[in-house]
Structures are given as C-alpha cells and as structure tokens.
Design goal:
Elements lengths: L1 E3 L11 E2 L4 E3 L3 E4 L32 E4 L11 E4 L12 E5 L3 H8 L14 E2 L4 E3 H7 L1
Parallel strand pairs: 1-9
Antiparallel strand pairs: 1-7, 2-8, 3-4, 4-6, 5-6, 5-7
C-alpha cells in the first residue's frame, strides 16, 4: 500500500511488467518503461511534464515513490522506489508517494539478482498496487 501526496497519480498496469526495470542494491528499484529499453515511456499528457517539487518531501528512507527523470522537467512514465535514505535526490525528483504497508516487498525487489546493466535476471511484475490518499489513511486511523 502506498500513500500519495499528489492528486494526479501515475497509472499502474496490473499484471504488466515493470518495463526495463533496474535494481541497484541499497539505492533504488526503477520501472515504468513500457518499451523495455530503459529510455522509453511517455507521461499521461503525451509529453514530459514539469517537476512538482515540495520542499517538505524528502528522500528520508526506504519506500519513497518518485518520478525518474533525465534532468529538470523531463518526467515521463518511469518511477522509482528508494531502498534507503537518498538525500542527494532531494529537490531533484518529484516525490508522489510513500509505501505505508508492504515495505518488505520493496526490499525483496532490491535483492533480486541483476545483470551488468542493473536489470533483473528474471522478469519482475507489479501484480497489484493500492493507492490510498494520505488524507484518507489519516481519517481511517
């Protein structure tokens, strides 16, 4: 389960592979490229969109969900989940969620065997993703 801090959420495709995923131990796991090349994927707008940087949101630990990019304002469909604190990414990537339940699954993704390009040796798929707005989770507690 993941709490989201933005109202515009990326679409996750159940039973669809991560798409050219990568996993770098003690750093992050990345996915969201439907072309499988590591360079593809467009945003829901059909073009790259601007960063939405919120100073209060920081890469403080494992389970932070953010947009991958190749520089300022180049967000497409690729995203990543952190496996550890990564403060050097603060104010460089749009953070839009945090894993609130199931962090062990994220950690297992980070321990999958990878090749020389940091791509998993075996196919990795998202089978289910549950988005819970941060406000809704707070109200339910």
């Amino acid at each position: 389960m993941c709490k989201f801090s933005h109202t515009r959420l990326p679409s996750f495709h159940p039973f669809h592979p991560f798409g050219a995923p990568s996993s770098i131990a003690d750093f992050m796991v990345q996915g969201g490229d439907p072309t499988g090349t590591g360079r593809g994927g467009t945003s829901i707008y059909g073009h790259p969109f601007a960063d939405e940087l919120t100073p209060a949101l920081r890469f403080t630990g494992a389970g932070i969900l953010a947009m991958a990019n190749s520089g300022p304002n180049t967000n497409g469909s690729q995203f990543f989940l952190t496996l550890a604190p990564t403060p050097f990414l603060d104010r460089k990537h749009t953070i839009f969620g945090r894993v609130s339940d199931g962090l062990g699954v994220v950690q297992r993704l980070g321990s999958v065997g990878v090749d020389a390009q940091d791509r998993p040796r075996e196919e990795v798929k998202i089978l289910k993703a549950v988005a819970v707005p941060a406000e809704a989770e707070s109200e339910a507690s």
